[in-house]
Amino acid sequence: MINIKDYLNQKIRPEPLAFLRIGFGLLMFFSVIRFYYNGWIESIYIEPFMHFKYYGFEWVKSLGQYNYLLFIICGVSSLFVALGYKYRFSIIVFFISFTYIELIDKTTYLNHYYFISVISFLFIFLPLNAKYSLDNYLNKKAFLLVPKWNIDAIKLFVFIVYFYAGLAKINSDWLLQAAPLSLWLTSNYDLPILGDLFQKSWVHYFFSWGGMLYDLLIPFFLIIHRTRIFAFVLVILFHVMTAILFPIGMFPYIMILFATIFFSSNQFQKIFKAFESIKFLKSRDIWYQEYNSKFQKINVLIISILLFVQILFPFRNLMYSGELFWNEEGYRFSWRVMLIEKMGYTTFRVIDSQSDKRILVENSNFLTDFQIKQMSFQPDMILEYAHFLGDYYKKRGFIEPKVFVDSYVTLNGRESQRFIDNNVNLLEEKESFKKKNWIIPLKDEIKGI
């Protein structure tokens, strides 16, 4: 207990937090602009007839045209975070607005969206505006030192993300079959020079094993002072390559930014020294002092719980039998990055129990092409859509509707097989944390963690 108290009292310069705050805010601002520029606000959050909800968050609704206002709030708050203007309020507003956007439709789930929600919640309890912020200039107060655990908490979270992504790659598909990378790399045949190289089998295995070793080892190399520069160069090369090869949005740049948190405060001091001519970065009127928060105990408790959950939550799939990559029970929110390539063909039959009237549903009448693609191989989305169809046709005269599904899915290049028991009326099944017994088991075994 004495050692813990001593650790919590250790201080460090706040430049790494300031750098991370500025980079994070600007990346998020650019991300919002990117959503608007590509028309995704309209096509993803406004146009769809229905939205798929996360279990327990069914109350989160699309705001229609007001989604544009929600994105404006998210964008402005991210810019304020970068500037360090009313930081605490701005990061809370960003966390709420960004997370609300992501909860509107789980069709868009990506690991880096989850990463942003978690890290922005973590930032609420850390003094990222301690130095080099508009708050310093306006309040005439900045901080020369902050608790060391503030930076270590971010390091631990980044460590968890990388290490767990590496653990997830220790499976027979990834290491012994080079799947699904072999499927993805061969599709890049049109790239100059690399296109022909990506057709070779040894290259697929090289990338698979290299990706696994990179995720497992890179956080250790970033921690060790002697290997840090080399590791950061690898981080840049690795994520730039993934950005070129795969359409995964902002994730590569986010991870490059967060890898900088492992560098020492002295290195960040050199960076900021070049910009100290900017008035609010250096002013004689600012009073410098050591940071002390009266809420430190509460902050430590909340962050400790958050990190403890991040350590345990990815292993919740152990509560379920069956193949994780197939049934996806416990797959989301576990830092399993780019491990599966699934495609499905799913059709729905709605039957009126009394009149025996039957309808073969045209999915495109209710869902966008992107929603159809994602729904076709994700069981919780199939179930939710079935209940939507049951409610829809009940309002249109079906007395006791039943919904059956014919679903075939292929996983990591395997032959397509039936995915859902077509004799089960999905209206009798409810979403819960229980095992989904109406999923037909995969006729294969993927060995791994």
Please explain how this structure is put together.
This protein is an alpha+beta fold. The protein folds into two domains: 10-317, no CATH class; 341-428, no CATH class. Helices cover 51% and strands 9% of the residues. The protein is built from 19 helices and seven strands. It has helices spanning 2-8, 15-37, 40-45, 67-83, 87-104, 111-123, 134-139, 148-168, 172-176, 181-186, 194-197, 201-223, 228-245, 251-259, 265-273, 296-312, 324-327, 369-375, 379-394, and strands at 11-12, 141-147, 287-290, 342-352, 358-360, 401-411, 417-418. The protein has a four-stranded antiparallel beta sheet with strand order 5-4-6-7. A three-stranded mixed beta sheet has the order 1-2-3. Helix 2 packs antiparallel against helix 14 (251-259). The longest helix has 23 residues, at 15-37. The model has no long low-confidence stretch (mean pLDDT 92).
Task: Output the keywords.
449 residues, four-stranded antiparallel sheet, globular, three-stranded mixed sheet, alpha+beta, single chain
Describe the structure concisely for a colleague:
This protein is an alpha+beta fold and 449 residues long. The protein has two domains: 10-317, no CATH class; 341-428, no CATH class.
List the helices and strands and how they pair.
Elements: H1 2-8, E1 11-12, H2 15-37, H3 40-45, H4 67-83, H5 87-104, H6 111-123, H7 134-139, E2 141-147, H8 148-168, H9 172-176, H10 181-186, H11 194-197, H12 201-223, H13 228-245, H14 251-259, H15 265-273, E3 287-290, H16 296-312, H17 324-327, E4 342-352, E5 358-360, H18 369-375, H19 379-394, E6 401-411, E7 417-418
Parallel strand pairs: 2-3
Antiparallel strand pairs: 1-2, 4-5, 4-6, 6-7
Helix pairs in contact: 2-4, 2-14, 4-5, 5-6, 8-12, 8-16, 12-13, 13-14
